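Most newcomers find our protein records easier to grasp once they have seen one. The structure tokens are whole numbers drawn from a learned vocabulary of backbone shapes. The record below serves as our worked example for the rest of this section.
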Amino acid sequence: MTHSNNAATPCTHQHRPDVSAAADALHVATGAQVRSTLIAELQPHLVRFGASLVLLITGSALGLVTPRLMGGLVDLVRDGRPLLGHTGTTAVWWTAGTMATAVAAMALITGFGYVLMAGTVERVIASLRERVIAGGIGMPAERIEEVGVGDLVSRTTDDVAEMTRAVNQSLASLAIGGFAVLVTVVGMALLDWRFLSVAVFLLPVYAVFVHRYRRYAPDAYLCQRMEMAQRASGILASLRGLRTVRAFNLQSSRRVGIGDHSWRAVELGVWIRILINRLFGGVNLAEYMGMSGVLVIGWFLVERGEVSVGVVTTATLYFLRLFQPIGMLVILIDPLASAAASLRRVVGVIVEPDSRPAEIVDAPGLPPGSAPGLRVEHLTFSYPGGRTVLDDLTAEVAPGAVTALVGASGAGKSTLGALIAGCRPVNSGRVLIGGTDASTLTPGQRARSVCLIAQGAHVFAGTLREDLLLARPDADDDALIDALRRVGAGDWVAALPEGLDTVVGERGQVLDPVEAQQVALARVLLVDPPVVVLDEATAEAGAGGSTALEEAAWNVVRGRTAVVIAHRLDQAVRADEIWLMESGRIVERGTHRKLVEQEGAYADLWAAWSRGR
């Protein structure tokens, strides 16, 4: 497999990765948005988090006791200086006991601090995980179509998993290592301020190497995530259209496209590994320079009689003690950079602009009574970057009437149905349901007022009962069975091995298209909405099941205000009124008989349909 198009990718290991190509993807959160989200999530746990910080600082301070006493032992042996108020063997025993106590206390306190912090982090991560899933579920369908489902899937799976793994393994260690460095540097300054000059001198060295890493790594990780998301989109699209891929022999081209994204992700991974190796090389250089500096300064201070050999020993042990926490912090830079990239993508789903319609608390709702009238006024709609699909359309459906939409593909029928059902936001104009502007309804009110049934209904994994209870959680078995019977599903449901408790969906009883659509229609009966939109809801039935499914659909719309997007013209014959759409406008309207008698476009369409049956 060749990868000759690498130069076209915005994410390349030759230069700083360019994330501008993410403009058509879901929102990537800014640093301010990430901080704001984390602060909001952390607020309920501030006491727990503060207590963990205090314990970790205390544990780090106790870690200085052993090096300080080791230096005191050197002065005790060399000069006979008292240690802990004692000399000779007594001083050694007292020192050993104090060291053991300090180490035990440090382990105990640090352990408690680690547990408190880990518990806090788990709670914050769990809340973020719930919010990103809720954000993905609540995102408008047109936004997901625009960016591709792979980006959303990647964020709610790969990025959430990476963020959780890195934070769980790294954050508490980061706090422990950071406090250890801080406390140790303070301890060196208390021994003699000149020892502090070593740390001050090394700060720019560490800063240069860390800055070089931070300059490239976060965007490299972000680009790697983008490539993984594109790879996921390619895989999902290929699997969904597997029959088409095989029919047109597209396996090679699809494989090459997916492979290109995989290869670029690998290239970025190698580039990130090079950055890590450079970082660790710089850290090792700084350690050698620092140890040499402490020994040289200590030699001069002892030579001038300003400090004892024991103090220099303590300072040296302090600096040696810095190796582990600094190495820990450096090691954590990599997973935390990766986690930061994932966190920006995860929070991006949470703060995605206009990702969910606003809940209007004081919405008037629908007026009480039976099926309401339905009216669209000056409705204009176009998809982003596309042509106008609906053009200043105004029409009305009488209360309790069934209106059929017919016309060629691309005439705007499905778009109009989606706008009425609230699946897409209106660009211009408005939809009135029973005189109430649909834009003033909350999503919950809208869902209970208008139901849309499209072709290819989804059956959720679980028992048939659970699938139906999604529509009406308080429904008893009699109501569920009655709804299934009314849509013609009574016989095959009765034949299920465990009845309503039979597991259906991917991991259970696989329902054929007719059965799946009957379940969807039964859910509509359970919701009992006053308005129903059927978007070619019987198209999947085929010749064998079309009659039964069409009868079930008419049982659902009976007594409701309904808009039926007709796949077969014989569906339109039973409607109270027919709208013939063309280029986003209604060009003919009336009953079937009236339109045939007019001998217009609908009459020609009906004649062609009749000849082809």
User: Anything to note?
Assistant: Confidence is low (pLDDT under 50) at residues 1-10, 12-23, 354-364. The first helix runs from residue 31 to 42. The CA atoms of residues 10 and 18 lie 5 Å apart.
